[in-house]
From TrEMBL:
UniProt family annotation: Belongs to the ROK (NagC/XylR) family.
PANTHER family on file: BIFUNCTIONAL UDP-N-ACETYLGLUCOSAMINE 2-EPIMERASE_N-ACETYLMANNOSAMINE KINASE, ROK (REPRESSOR, ORF, KINASE) FAMILY
Name of the molecule in the record: ROK family protein
InterPro entries recorded: ATPase_NBD, ROK, ROK_cs
Length: 349
């Protein structure tokens, strides 16, 4: 697909969504009618490893690129939605215990939202990337009218485990902006890990939190070191742990027993997390995002079914709630960031 295919020009005011990642920035445009003008990824290098100044400049370049290719006059842009990998404050101040992308000391305490706002001279609305993806999934699932009356919880499986809680169409951020850090919720491990299996440890220091199991890091640090010796003749037994972890999903798509054992533990862990959510927020929908969305349909349905089976709901909740996959995952962050900016413009009248 060329960069101009699937791109429309606006008819009225718009907001721009910018999804900041470890290697690329993705951008989109959402117009006043609620239509996205871009149906594809529009990416440029993010330069986050080069420090805050160059990374903010890259975000500005991403903004200018997307309004250029959609033929959007700058005067029509009302606001910008920005997301970055967390943790960060509710207003976009990067935590001193930042994500991998923001490990350099120059990032600690850096207000990326305010810096981009100064650079572009437009209001910037901030969310972390998992919250943005959760918000997009919520609005896409319910539609513009029902979205503001419904609630959802999303778990995003990636290098870590991100999450988001949406209530009445809005992301719950919390006092310090750390709400929805579902990866660091500690879960009961009964029926999740095997007898004698070491309790998984997270990089954050917690034992038995969701991320220690349901993440690529959890696979490398905790699950494969336990399961690979139990399949000594497996093709992955001769690979390094990082290499085996990257290949594992392909094996799961072929119903390989080792891979299904690992991903089965991930699904069970998410089910335990959603059981906690059921008793805490009782959402209308439980969303799953991450690599499972990008997998073969049979495997992702198997995974979703496993999560559902290990989520303990009361009879009334079973009748009221649904389980679904986050749509358009590669574009979900930018689109969710745009939705947040859109809602901010509408709320201000």
């Amino acid at each position: 697909m060329t960069q101009t295919e699937g791109i429309r020009t606006p008819a009225s005011w718009v907001v721009v969504g910018l999804d900041n990642g470890g290697t690329t920035d993705n951008a989109t445009v959402l117009d006043a009618t609620g239509q996205f003008l871009v149906d594809q990824l529009v990416e440029i290098p993010s330069r986050v490893l080069d420090g805050p100044e160059l990374a903010v400049e890259a975000l500005a370049d991403s903004f200018e690129n997307i309004i250029r290719i959609t033929n959007t006059p700058l005067t029509l842009v009302k606001a910008i939605g920005l997301d970055t990998p967390g943790p960060a404050s509710a207003t976009g101040v990067i935590s001193s215990k930042g994500a991998t992308n923001f490990s350099a000391v120059s990032w600690h305490g850096f207000d990326i939202r305010a810096a981009l706002e100064r650079r572009l001279g437009l209001p910037v609305v901030y969310n972390n990337d998992a919250n943005a993806a959760s918000l997009y999934a919520h609005h896409r699932y319910f539609g513009p009218e029902q979205a503001m009356q419904k609630s959802s919880v999303a778990g995003i499986v990636g290098t870590g485990f991100g999450g988001g809680v949406v209530h009445d169409g809005r992301v719950i951020k919390g006092a310090a902006g750390m709400a929805g850090e579902l990866g660091h919720v500690q879960i009961p491990l009964q029926d999740v890990i095997e007898p004698g299996q070491p309790v998984p440890r997270c990089n954050c220091g917690f034992l038995g939190d969701v991320e220690s199991i349901a993440s690529l890091t959890g696979i490398k640090n905790n699950l494969l070191p336990y399961w690979l010796p139990r399949f000594p003749d497996h093709p992955l037994a001769g690979e390094s742990i990082p290499s085996a972890a990257k290949q594992l999903r392909g094996y799961a798509e072929r119903e390989d027993p080792l891979a299904l054992a690992v991903f089965g533990q991930q699904a069970k862990a998410i089910g335990k997390l959603f059981t906690i959510a059921a008793n805490f927020t009782d959402p209308d929908v439980y969303f799953i995002g991450g690599g499972v969305v990008e997998a073969a349909p049979s495997f992702r349905q198997w995974f979703l079914n496993m999560v559902r089976d290990y989520t303990q709901l009361r009879q009334e909740q079973v009748a009221a709630a649904s389980f679904a996959l986050v749509p358009d995952l590669d574009m979900a962050g930018a689109r969710g960031a745009a939705v947040a900016a859109f809602d901010s413009v509408v709320a201000e009248g």
